[in-house]
Design goal:
This protein folds into two domains: about 1-65, no CATH class; about 70-210, Immunoglobulin-like (Sandwich), CATH 2.60.40. Helix content is about 25%, strand content about 30%. It has helices spanning about 15-25, 30-40, 45-65, 70-80, 105-110, and strands at about 1-5, 10-15, 90-95, 95-100, 115-125, 125-135, 140-150, 160-165, 170-175, 180-185, 190-195, 205-210. The strands form three sheets. It has a five-stranded mixed sheet with strand order 3-12-11-8-9.
């Protein structure tokens, strides 16, 4: 408890905010709770503090039932944790090994919609599979992708940062999950590159997708 002094009146002892937080969450023992309840009956200051804490705790409990989408969690993680490659670092280039806009196997024709373009790139021991889709009635596009480490025997993939850059400016970024999957939403623009940040110090693996994501050229021929 601590004392408040008001003019020449005797000091009034109050319980601190941490004590009232424990009281509101039923974390105090029976004797302490009885003493605090007696204090509440005579102290309007502490009643106001407890009422505020009750509202905060109630709101927190209500929010706890909401499940944050994984894509939102990954995007938030990327903003605060993902390393942004230095412009001075050399870039590694992945090669295109499949493009549904050029050739489409029979099996892929059944699984890839006509408004989606599938691209597969490989480089530096990694395989990137992209599904780019034009959003309905909007110039924006969405990209669903998966990163695979070709030399790894584990089913768990490293949660690597993914970014989209245009003229050395990061325009979108996220982090792939434990399965190597990621989602990005972006505005197509010339010179757009998709990057895979292998580490903070290593050269990132980059893929030029500006031509593929600009205008109508992304659509299957």
């Amino acid at each position: 408890m601590h004392a408040d002094f008001t003019g020449g009146t005797p000091p009034v002892n109050h319980y601190g905010i941490h004590a009232w937080s424990d009281y509101a969450r039923n974390l105090v023992d029976a004797d302490t709770r009885q003493s605090m309840a007696s204090h509440l009956a005579e102290c309007s200051t502490c009643r106001r503090r407890l009422a505020t804490l009750d509202r905060v705790i109630s709101t927190a409990r209500d929010e706890a039932v909401h499940q944050v989408p994984e894509s939102v969690s990954r995007a938030a993680y990327a903003v605060f944790q993902a390393p942004v490659p230095s412009p001075s670092l050399p870039k590694l280039v992945a090669r295109l090994v499949f493009d549904s806009g050029v050739g489409l196997a029979a099996a892929d024709a059944r699984t890839v919609g006509a408004d989606t373009r599938r691209l597969v790139f490989e480089g530096e021991g990694y395989r990137l599979e992209l599904h780019m889709r034009q959003e309905f009635d909007t110039p924006r596009m969405s990209m669903a992708g998966q990163v695979q480490h070709l030399n790894s025997t584990s089913s768990q993939q490293p949660q690597l940062p993914i970014y989209l850059a245009s003229r050395r400016k990061i325009v979108a970024r996220t982090v792939c999950n434990q399965f190597g999957e990621f989602l990005l939403d972006f505005q197509p623009r010339p010179g757009l590159k998709l990057g895979l940040a292998l580490s903070e110090s290593a050269a990132p693996l980059e893929i030029g997708i500006g031509r593929l994501a600009t205008g109508a050229e992304w659509r299957r021929q």
